[in-house]
Amino acid sequence: MNFHFTQKELSCFTENAKREWALTNGIGGYAGGSVIGSLGRTHQGYLVASLHPPVERYLVFSKTNEMLCCGGSVYNLETSQHAGEEMNITLVHSDEVPEVYKAPDTVSVASDFIPRKPVYIEGQHYQTAFDYDGNVHFTYHAGGITLEKHITLAQGENKVFVAYRIANTGKNAELIITPLMNYREHNGSSTRDSLKFRKHSFSEACGFMLIPDANPNIGIVLAASEGELASSDRLYDEDLQFATEVENEVPGLDTCYTPYQIKIHVPAGSVKEVSLTCYVKANEQDTAAAPAISSEIAFDALKRNQEFLARLVSNADCKDAFSQILTIASNQFLSLRKSTGLTTILAGLPWFTDWGRDTMIAFTGLVLCTRRFDKAEEILLTFAEYVDDGMVPNMFPDNGQEPLYNTADASLWYFYAVDKYLEYNNTPAAYDFIKEHIYPALREIIAYYKKGTRFSIYMDEDGLIHAGSGTDQITWMDVRVGDWVVTPRHGKPVEINALWYNALKVMEKLSAHYKDTPAIGDDAITYAKLSEQVKTSFCQKFWNEADRCLYDVVSDEGCDASIRPNQIYAVSLPYTMLDEKKAKAVVDVVKEKLFVGVGLRSLSPEYKDYHPVYIGSLPKRDAAYHQGTAWGFLLGGFITAYTRVYGPSAKTAEETLAMIAPIKEHLRDNCVGSVCEIFDGNAPHYGRGCYAQAWSVGEILRCYTEDILPWLK
User: Fold this and answer.
1) Which of 290, 436, 473, 606 could pair covalently with 205 via S-S, beta carbons 3.0-4.6 A apart?
2) Which residues contact 386 (CB under 8 A, 6 or more apart)?
3) How far apart are CA 186 and CA 46, in angstroms?
4) What is the CATH number of the domain that holds 263?
């Protein structure tokens, strides 16, 4: 698997500054940038370290800039965007905001932000290639010198390696590397005043350690395998500008600390390899011994990572390039959670932590289709440990606080994940694992959903689940800005009750399997009776005969007939309540109104609240998030539902393969080799939100593996 970009493709700065790459280290840390070497958003840099895995993430090393000096000529390979003067624009007042962006009067959507004109340093004109194969590779040519720059992260450590290979066919030359250092939360920004360090240079080796005034308990170490450490001509690189943030109507500015340069002599006719390493260590004595860095260390790290990814692909038994790409992408979301000592799933790069709902939806694709059953068990254990009052956590905050439980569906998706685990790992040992460690949590969830738990979640007399009231936002359509609840969905949401039925059927099956256990006994009969009641009530109350599909929400105030994608789960889940005719009608409506190739729209365009694009200030984006924006993860449920109603066959597989063709094209845009969180509802469906999303990758890999690959010739 390799994504290759040519010099011609890389020539345009503005186009390629938004084409990103990402690497992760398995403990919540990551690295990222653009294919031309610039930084395009706040959440990018060569080392974002997780100080309390997988949270407390801090940018410590932003990037390196390179310069080649040879034969009296200087070639600046730096590619960056800086902020210039304020642009002369007319402010948009609230009464001038397009109707599609309108929000309640209590929410301001106007912006007083005046962007500053970008100033580009375009070193990409010397760049001849960019390659991504699970590591990152830049190639430059200038002055008779070919410079390769490779980046990889150490697994399980807050450490990044930058490897250089310099082939000089010209005159004696010098490579000057300027490391841009930082210390800030990964969603923040630095200024000259906030970036204060105590610094130690190494006399025995080429490197230094920085101790942030903001956190004197750590040291940021950077060392090269060779070269001369020289003082830089400036301490700070200021007004770095991030295009994606400016697009979101915020300044998008940052400052980096640049006290040193590394100068490396490259004789004429020579080929030289140089390793650069940056890592975070505990600062115990306010000093650091010079690290021993060999020229091979970074290249060895690159090789180890390639070998790891090769084993991952081999273990998953990938059948083609597409499944290989998604298998490698799946690994980016797996992380250690220090509080449990077990594996968890990060919902999306670069800013999400582990969310219960996202984890359970992504679970099958990320760890079952890739046959990582040990990781699957750890993930199930992680969330079982935090079940409280019958609820799986919605999210673990980034600041280390207690989990939040504001979701009605995460607990129900947990049953789906358990059932899929046993489908893929159908062994006595797996059933024993579920019985001992997971089944008690499942029983607790059912009990609390029946009698009632947080956020007005309870089973009504008809057997259906009611959820939410007031300003609660507890389905996946969960945007709230102040008291503005964008998509309330209070009452009985369609997917919650489809999941409830599925959960009851899973418990019926498990209880029957464990019937010889005294504490379980005849539980299967109880779950079977309740599931039949739920099925009867659901079919009576959710069918919308006028539109030949399902209501989105049923409540005492009436039925919400908005055509949304949530109804697809009443067809795609393993246990469904609809007859064949109604199931096919639902799929046909969703395909006609919501399907856009890269995902499903969150609302049909025929409604006045439909928002065609997701862009601008946060209130504008929140107004669009679930009101027309297309979501990649919904493709999984749609493809499975389509396959179910049209029948699994070679013909259906060819049809669905054509449907997801835009995703294959998307793999070269946004985050190379991965799938975005969301897309504009209108063409050309630009990728938005998180540049790599766990449930987008997981669900596309799952439906491709389960519904398409087995039938392809």
Assistant:
1) 290
2) 392, 393, 403
3) 12
4) 2.70.98
Does 257 fall in a domain?
A: yes
Put residue 28 in one of left, alpha, beta given phi > 0 → left and psi -120 to 50 → alpha. Answer: left
Residue 524 covered by a domain: no
Contact 610, 628 (CB under 8 A): yes
634/564 Cα distance (integer angstroms): 11
Total structural domains within the chain: 1
Query: Among residues 334, 411, 415, which one has the least CA distance to residue 370?
Result: 334
SS3 449: helix
Q: What is the pLDDT of residues 489-511, one digit of tens each?
A: 999 999 999 999 999 999 999 99
In-domain check, residue 399: no
- How many CA atoms are closer than 13 Å to the CA of 689, on its beta-carbon side? 25
Whole-number Å distance between alpha carbons of 550 and 544: 5
**Is the residue at 435 inside a domain?**
no
Q: What is the mean pLDDT of residues 626-654?
A: 97
Give the integer Cα–Cα distance in Å for 330 and 365.
8
Interior CA angle at 243 toward 674 and 677, to 5°?
30
In this structure, what DSSP letter does residue 91 have? P
Average pLDDT of span 144-162? 97
Domain limits at 214? Answer: 3-307
Rounded-to-integer distance, Cα 231 and Cα 214, Å: 23
Question: Per 3-state DSSP, what percentage of the chain is helix, strand, and coil (rounded to 5)?
Answer: 30, 30, 40
- For tokens 């956190």, name the residue: 215
Q: Above 70 in pLDDT, residue 103?
A: no
φ, ψ of residue 63 to 5 degrees: the values are 180, 180
Average pLDDT over every residue of 525-551: 97
Task: Say if residue 54 is preceded by a cis peptide, omega within 30 of 0.
Answer: yes
CB 378 within 8 A of CB 359: no
Q: How many residues does the chain have?
A: 713
DSSP 547-582: TTEE-SEEETTEEE----GGGGHHHHSSS--S-HHH
